[in-house]
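Most newcomers find our protein records easier to grasp once they have seen one. A learned vocabulary of local backbone shapes supplies the integers on the structure line. An example says more than a description, so a record of this kind follows:
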Amino acid sequence: MPGADDGRLARGHRALVRAAVESGGATVASVFVNPLQFGAHEDLSRYPRDEAGDLRVLEQAGCALVWLPDVATMYPPGEATTINLTGPAERWEGAERPGHFRGVATVCAKLFGQVRPDRAYFGEKDWQQLQVVTRMVADLLMPLRIVGVRTVREADGLALSSRNRFLTARERTVAPRLHAALRQAAATLAQGTQAAGPLAAARDSLTRAGFAVDYFALVDGPSLAPLDMPRTGCRLIAAARLGTVRLLDNVAVYEERNRA
């Protein structure tokens, strides 16, 4: 069961569907723009929607069934339960967007209950979301496995996202610098360097390029706890605004070293 909850399927979402189809099971996709994970100052109406296009793409990708619930189905009047999380949900996106992961966890739990998948596929681009959902499923003993799918990128390294369409032409030429900064910092950290210097240099280079950096951090992969030194399973995560668009990306430090 691949999930796409930000409206209008991007190529990254199609990669989730392909991974599910290639696993050999019947694939179900959910498409739902989830109001519960939007903050007070985030524009739900701005998110793109293209139901007919989504259905066409999913059919072509080999999806067997699409679940397209409306808001009344997902959040009927009088309901009294949401899921609040600690652990991997507490920092980074959890701090920048209060209530966001409560919305993510609640809608995922509902979708898992409705569809009853054996596996659910989430992209590594939203690394923290992947860890939050994985932790929720383990803690609540849900009978399914969460599968992470590698980030899909443009040729210049920019992580695919439905938000990229809002970049101006000039911003689009600058946007790949976020991934480049992550790669450069990862290469330095993989040599066993303390995190403070490379992280500060990356933030400075992105600021000079025109980004407003929300965070650029070295963390433990599963828990998202900040680290002072790289270690096995660590991850570099970043969020930065470029114009009106907020970009997220991440890389695995030692994976980057092994590619070099």
